[in-house]
Amino acid sequence: MRSGTPVVLFYTESEEEKRIAEKFFINYQTRDCTGLEEEKLYSVITGKTGNSKSQKLDLRGYSFMIFHNIKSKEIPEILKHFRKVSKSNWIFATTTENNLSWTLKDLFHELVEEHENMHKYNNSSRKGRKA
């Protein structure tokens, strides 16, 4: 897998959600990241991973989908349709120059923190507007 190829990475504990993701993204290369928690994102994208040990992560019940080299205008449409077929609570992200060097474990923890902070902010903003 070359780094310029469009790739969808996913990480979920649900076998059903894994099957949904693999079937849904028939036009893209997909990669199940289970067991690759200690690997760098770039290594996972390029398929150059070592023999890392699978780690049970406390990700607060979230599943993850990371888009690499997918056109930004395509992503909202993908998300809209994927959310219709999925039952899990997914966090979606795209690769950046910065996060390509992160381990998946560190990226997932950062995404959970950002996601929950965003929801706290949005909830407090809504409460402020009602007052």
Can you describe this structure?
The chain is an alpha/beta fold. The protein has one domain (7-130). 41% of the residues lie in helices and 15% in strands. It has 4 helices and 4 strands. It has helices at residues 15-24, 41-46, 75-85, 104-130; strands at 7-11, 29-32, 63-68, 90-94. It has a 4-stranded mixed sheet with strand order 2-1-3-4, sandwiched between helices. Strand 1, helix 1 and strand 2 (29-32) form a beta-alpha-beta unit. The chain is globular. The chain starts with 6 loop residues before the first strand and ends with a helix.
Which structural class fits the helix and strand makeup?
A: alpha/beta
Order of helices and strands: EHEHEHEH
Distance between the termini: 53 Å
Beta fraction of the residues? 15-25%
What kind of assembly state do the chains in view correspond to? single chain
Taking pLDDT < 50 over at least 5 consecutive residues as the criterion, the unreliable ranges are: none
Considering DSSP H and I runs of 4 or more, what fraction of the residues is helical? 40-55%
Shape: globular
Task: Give the rounded overall mean pLDDT.
Answer: 89
Radius of gyration: 15 Å
How many helices? 4
Give the strand line-up of the largest sheet: 2-1-3-4
**Count of domain modules:** 1
Q: Biggest β-sheet: count, sense, barrel?
A: 4 strands, mixed
Count of β-strands: 4
Structure at a glance:
This protein is 41% helix and 15% strand.
Question: What are its keywords?
Answer:
single chain; alpha/beta; 131 residues; 4 strands
